[in-house]
């Protein structure tokens, strides 16, 4: 993995949203906070980060549930004519002026903020398939869809012009990861037929563990009933294609057998109640595994035309408290897969960017999350170039703890646990932060 990348330090609302160039991807922090979100109900007057979050709702202390958006350039769709994007300039200018050009981490993006925001729904032309940022086609992979998903969409995701979620990855079955699934129906394509029924045009490819699937079968059973189960996540394009062909034949045969094949849309017909509908793939909960995500095979490489090989994605299990497995991912060019998750991480080609739990300050511990001390231990063990904390509770005020983390990093260097410059930064992420990274 190359180490050459740029971090866009301004809040997403005060900078132009641009498509990643060929060979790159953009990571957008959709949410950076703990399950409660920040501000926390009942915490006003306690002197924590909630005070700052209420005073400045667009600031870095206001945190939605942890979620990450991966945006890739596509080479299988045409660029849009410039004329199709010109109508949003005035609206974008107005929105950016109202934002005030607030910078969240320093940097020079403010000069371009006057045309930063192009409202997403003005691009939702029925005749155009796929996602676009400006004139460029892109693919969006979303990690987690928690209970603050709707707020996160209007705070962050709308500025990325998201029309559909191309692929969904779910870490676990808790509310902060899955409670927004109902709202996802507004980001997938379906249409109503003459009978008033809804027909799914595109089920959202969704990768999750068997345990998470069992949770969803109880908590959002209506979504699972309208979804399709495609089996295990495959490692190669050929395995994936063969599996999908087999499953489609089975669905068509089942529709004939149960008498629903005559309906408009056949097995894609979900009835009169519009809901999210997923295409479910189960990941291995016990060992690291390479996953083939078909949407990544459309990504434009550095040459701009080669879509023959997909972006490598690996899932691996981690503990979210004793006995509870949550899934994590590595994406980009890595080496082989050893037996255990820690060995897997340590065996990677140098990690460019690590997003990791940082629930509470140094001196505090949690049975289910990394706090600052545990995060720093992991930094020493893995030595990633850039580290960003996520999942912060309100005890971590953004600006104060940005300084504290730099001191902690300096202490590790002074103690000889890290070489100077080996880890270039340890910081807190914030909602709307973007990282431009080579594929």
From TrEMBL:
Residues 86-111 are annotated as: Disordered. PANTHER family: HYDROLASE C777.06C-RELATED (PTHR42663:SF6), HYDROLASE C777.06C-RELATED-RELATED (PTHR42663). It comes from the Eukaryota. It comes from Leishmania donovani. This is Beta-lactamase domain family protein. Residues 141-228 form the Metallo-beta-lactamase domain. InterPro entries: Metallo-B-lactamas (IPR001279), RibonucZ/Hydroxyglut_hydro (IPR036866). SUPFAM superfamilies: Metallo-hydrolase/oxidoreductase.
